[in-house]
Amino acid sequence: MGWKELELCPLHDYGCNAQQIRTSSMSFSMRGTIHYNLCQAGKLFWKTLLGFFELTDSMKIAWGITGSGDLLPETITVMKEVVNLDSRPKLYIFLSKAARQVVKWYGLSRELESLSSKIFQEVDANTTEPFYYLPGALQLRKFDFFLICPATANTVAKVVNGIADTLITNSVAQATKANVPTYILPVDQTEGKITTKLPSGQKLELEIRQTDLDNVHGLSSMKSIHILHNPSEIKAIITSTAHQSS
């Protein structure tokens, strides 16, 4: 049998052009199986995409969490108050690879789940599990603002130096290109010694490096980026954003 064009799936029914492939020596049953599988894949793709462009009147916040246990419990406490504000903001929570481990170490998984059903874990600089294209959503201004809290010194250093090789740093890059307000709370922004708490509850004293302080200073001069000093500031940001939208 010579080469033939076989239309495999009417993807145009879901919003795009039908795709064709060339095949040879393929049984009818095999063609049917491929046709069915591609149809199912097409449906899943567009179902995911429609979720990505979900329409809602509620305020939508993209909340990125990096691999810092410091200030994470305090941030979650504030977020419990946030979801009950009059504006009823909708949280989309994005965990970096390190944050996923830290959340487990501190036993905060259920706390996050109580805040939102939309929790996404980093796969690479563009995608998550379950699938969500955060950098693209921020470019298209699908969120009222982007919050990174807490932000590790590593994340801050990458953002300041234009490195966008993780989900959070790439999302910051795309958000700022679209002038989406981006609020970052660096954990290492106070000169001198700080005391943090380990997952065991034990206290640990650390001295902040000058290079980390310099990076926070650099962050403050970047367009569309605003530095937070305490998680309690988040409520005022949401109230202000709600007033601007009304």
- CATH level-1 class of the largest domain: Alpha Beta
Helix/strand-derived category reads alpha/beta
Q: What is the CATH homologous superfamily assignment of the largest domain?
A: Flavin prenyltransferase-like
How many domains? Answer: 2
Q: What is the rounded Rg?
A: 22 Å
Biggest sheet character: 7 strands, mixed
First-last Cα distance? 66 Å
Note the total helix count.
Answer: 9
Average residue pLDDT: 83
User: Which fold name fills CATH's third level, the topology of the largest domain?
Assistant: Rossmann fold
Total count of strands: 11
- CATH architecture field of the largest domain: 3-Layer(aba) Sandwich
Spatial order of the strands in the main sheet? 6-5-4-3-7-8-11
Poorly predicted tracts of residues: 1-26
Helix content: 40-55%
Percent of residues in beta strands: 15-25%
- SSE arrangement, N to C: EEHEHEHHEEHEHHEEEHEH
How would you sum up the global shape?
globular
Keywords:
246 residues; alpha/beta; 2 domains; seven-stranded mixed beta sheet; two-stranded antiparallel sheet
SSE inventory with pairings:
Layout lengths: L3 E6 L9 E5 L4 H25 L7 E6 L6 H11 L7 E6 L1 H9 L3 H7 L3 E4 L5 E2 L4 H6 L5 E7 L1 H8 L6 H11 L4 E5 L6 E5 L5 E5 L2 H11 L4 E3 L5 H13 L1
Parallel strand pairs: 3-4, 3-7, 4-5, 7-8, 8-11
Antiparallel strand pairs: 1-2, 5-6, 9-10
Helix pairs in contact: 6-7, 6-8
